[in-house]
Amino acid sequence: MISVEGLKVEFNATPLFEDVSYVINKKDRIALVGKNGAGKSTMLKILAGLQQPTAGVVAVPRECSIGYLPQVMILSDERTVMQEAELAFEHIFEMQADIERMNQELAERTDYDSDDYQKLIDRFTHENERFLMMGGTNYRAEIERTLQGLGFSRTDFDRPTSEFSGGWRMRIELAKLLLQRPDVLLLDEPTNHLDIESIQWLENFLATRANAVVLVSHDRAFLNNVTTRTIEISCGRIYDYKVKYDEFVVLRKERREQQLRAYENQQKQIEDTEAFIERFRYKATKAVQVQSRIKQLEKIERIEVDEEDNSALRLKFVCSSRSGNYPVICEDVAKAYGDHVIFHDVNLTINRGDKVAFVGKNGEGKSTLVKCIMDEITDYTGKLTLGHNVQIGYFAQNQAQLLDESQTVFDTIDRVAVGDIRLKIRDILGAFMFGGEASDKKVKVLSGGERTRLAMIKLLLEPVNFLILDEPTNHLDMRSKDVLKEAIRDFDGTVIVVSHDRDFLDGLVTKVYEFGGGLVKEHLGGIYDFLKKKQIENLNELQHSSVAGLSSMADRNPSNKEKTGPAKGGKIEVAQPSSARLSYEEQKEQNKKLKKLERRIADCEAEVEQTESAISILEAQMATVEGASDMSLYERHQKLKAQLDQAMEAWEEASTELDEWKKTNRIM
Q1: What share of the chain in percent tops pLDDT 90?
Q2: Higher pLDDT, 549 or 54
Q3: N or C: which end of the chain has fewer CB within 10 A?
Q4: pLDDT for residue 133
Q5: How far apart are CA 105 and CA 283, in angstroms?
Q6: Per-residue CA distances from 239 to 186, 215, 300, 644 (Å)
Q7: Separation CA 294–CA 279 (nearest Å)
Q8: Mean pLDDT, to the nearest integer, of 34-59?
Q9: Three-state secondary-structure class, residue 651
Q10: What span, in angstroms and rounded, lies between the C-alpha atoms of 203 and 219?
Q11: Which ranges of 1-50 does DSSP label H, i.e. alpha helix?
Q12: CB of 92 within 8 A of CB of 139?
């Protein structure tokens, strides 16, 4: 679909990558990976047509549409959420306006027998059918589904976008891209501003409904659940693996070991050759051989091995003196802004040494409760008690803005490092991608992501016994996240992590607090124990909603009612015991199957509605004096009737299949 040939990009005469060639096929799910600065975002910009390469060609077919989501963008503040999302359907609105114009022209003209009038009728019918087939009548429902999937509530739809934070406005842009259904989606860190539920919804959308996808992400679980192909940019070249990320990591390790062996052999060959040249350089009898070896040395194509961070490095948070047994106790804590209640009746106790996660949709109060604990918010009700000798280290989402811009990266860390750790500052900076000359950069020239990493290193070295980390992984690559995760795991104190990164939380936390609907619920166990429980709950909710959807369809078509509802008006129930015993993976597969069947039924329903609308329009034309004698209208009417019968048969078949699947899985 998109062909990349001989691509080369240079910055200040230094190649970022060169001689890069690959093809993006239909339905490809590609993860673009590599260390920071390797050129991942640059590659996406070139594919999107926003940046020109130094050399090479990116061939995009004329009919191929591309949607691009950058990490940062400037957004308009002139519309509501719904109005902004509707921009994705501008082509639908243009088509609708054209149909209305033709309809008005048909009503005003009187030359019914002319060829021109007949051509206008044909064009009107064709465009109207095309409009209906493109979902012109149900685009708003699609917008609502997408916005709700990305975390918006119905009450948000009519709010101006200016009222939302940058993260929520990025979600609006993502919704617009998904609604446009481009042939190729280019996504640069799409999960940075999403919560766990929205990430799971996006995973399902990209895996089942999107066309080709190329994405850059540092969320390992997201990559594994979405992508099936991994392209790594390394040492100015690309390595294309037809596998998901976890399998790529194994294959990459094998490839690197081969590279190292080849590199070592080549270095030995070079050393031997240089030694020969140096030894016999001034001997006339060896002049020919020396010159031959010099030419041989010049022709050698040097093998490069991608630098890898020191895997033996183990950072450790400096734990200060021991805190009391219960660092945080909340009793009936509540916080509201006017009439808007953020949360109420919060009762929780965090024990010394606990490592807990705060999860939930954005805006449900995670950061608000953290600020209450930090005493940044004091006008809450209820009782919040900090334990004896609690010393808090706090990483806020805006922590990077508080750094001294006049300092260098090295000096920023040198000022807080104490003891033996000062001898390892360069190693620590290297692990967080500040190796070499980067450590001498001024803070004021660092990007947002670099500042975030620097603020995280600073926190690593401050002596505390209670860590509160609010979205600490947003700008960290996978290696840096692994280093941070290991440091938190080894920390002797207490930790609260506000995060949407499932892979980061997995094996790190032993308790999850879920924020939602004004409540804070405690879940014992790790993040995947929590998600497994939520998956079962969500599946049961889906089963209820799908049965309700089938019942509404049966109401439209009474003759089929017995196929979708209880035989004698009995109450519809969902049997839970069997689903409760399913494993997380089985539950996930069952959920996918259910969604697939429901989508098929929904598509059939949409086709039935569209065809019925087209028949109604045609029958209105046939009822006119002119239409009564137009045989072509009758022919189209018969075709549409046959199309409606086929759509109804397809709907009945899908409904029956869903019923049988539910019986097989004991869902009644």
Answers
A1: 25
A2: 54
A3: C
A4: 65
A5: 98
A6: 19, 16, 22, 50
A7: 13
A8: 88
A9: helix
A10: 12
A11: 40-47
A12: yes
**Confidence label for 537 from pLDDT (cuts 50, 70 and 90):** low
What pLDDT is recorded for position 515?
93
Q: Is the pLDDT of residue 307 over 80?
A: no
Which pairs from 633-641 meet CB under 8 Å and 24+ separation? 636/125, 640/611, 640/614, 640/615, 641/615
Which position has the higher pLDDT, 607 or 568? 607
Determine the Cα–Cα distance for residues 650 and 658; give it in Å rounded to an integer: 12
Instruction: Enumerate the H helices of 332-386 as residue ranges.
Output: 366-373
Q: Are 5 and 56 in contact, with CB atoms under 8 Å apart?
A: yes
The pair of three-digit structure tokens given for residue 630, joined into one six-digit string: 């137009």
Q: Please check whether residue 230 is in contact with residue 248, taking contact to mean a CB–CB distance below 8 angstroms.
A: yes
Q: Say which amino acid occupies 22.
A: Y
Q: Is 282 exposed, middle or buried (0-12, 13-18, 19+ CB in 10 A)?
A: exposed
Q: Concatenated DSSP letters for 157-174?
A: TTSBGGGS-HHHHHHHHH
Distance CA 252, CA 367 (A): 38
Q: Tokens for 616?
A: 């109604």
Q: What secondary structure, in 3-state letters, does 380-392 show?
A: CEEEEEECCCCCE
Identity of the amino acid at 344:
H
Strands 184-188 and 66-69: parallel
User: pLDDT, tens digit, for every residue of 235-262?
Assistant: 788 999 999 999 998 998 888 888 788 8
Q: Where are the beta strands (DSSP E) in 179-326?
A: 184-188, 212-216, 229-234, 237-241
From residue 283, give the alpha-carbon distance in Å to each of 274, 286, 290. Answer: 15, 5, 9
In the chain, count H helices and then E strands. 22, 18
Return phi, psi of residue 516, to 5°: 180, 140
The proportion of the chain whose per-residue pLDDT surpasses 70, expressed as a percent, equals 85
Backbone angles phi, psi at 432, to 5 degrees: -105, 30
Beta bridge partners of 212: 184
H-run or E-run covering 277 = helix 245-280
Which two tokens mark 264?
């070592």
Higher pLDDT, 265 or 30: 30
Q: CB 156: neighbour CB atoms within 10 A? A: 19
Report how far apart, in Å, the C-alpha atoms of 384 and of each of 310, 323, 374 are: 42, 16, 11
Indicate the average pLDDT of the chain: 81
Reported as a single tens digit per residue, the pLDDT across 323-335 is 989 999 999 999 9
Q: What is the C-alpha separation between 174 and 216, in angstroms, rounded?
A: 14
**How far is 216 from 232, CA to CA, in rounded Å?**
11
Q: How many CB atoms lie within 10 A of CB 356?
A: 22
- Spatial CA neighbour of 158 closest among 88, 209, 86, 208: 86
Q: Which amino acid is at 395?
A: F
- Cα(360)–Cα(353) distance, rounded to whole angstroms? 23
pLDDT confidence tier of residue 510, bands split at 50, 70 and 90: very high
CB 310 within 8 A of CB 431: yes
Q: For 507, left (φ over 0), alpha (ψ -120 to 50), or beta?
A: left
Pairing of strands 494-498, 466-470: parallel
Cα angle value 329/335/337 (rounded, 5°): 165
Residue position matching structure tokens 């029956």: 656
Q: Is the pLDDT of residue 581 over 50?
A: no
Whether the Cβ atoms of residue 235 and residue 36 lie closer than 8 Å to each other: no
Reference 613, options 142, 118, 131; nearest CA is 131
Three-state secondary structure string covering 125-136: HHHHHHHHHCCC
Residue the block writes with tokens 């481009």:
182
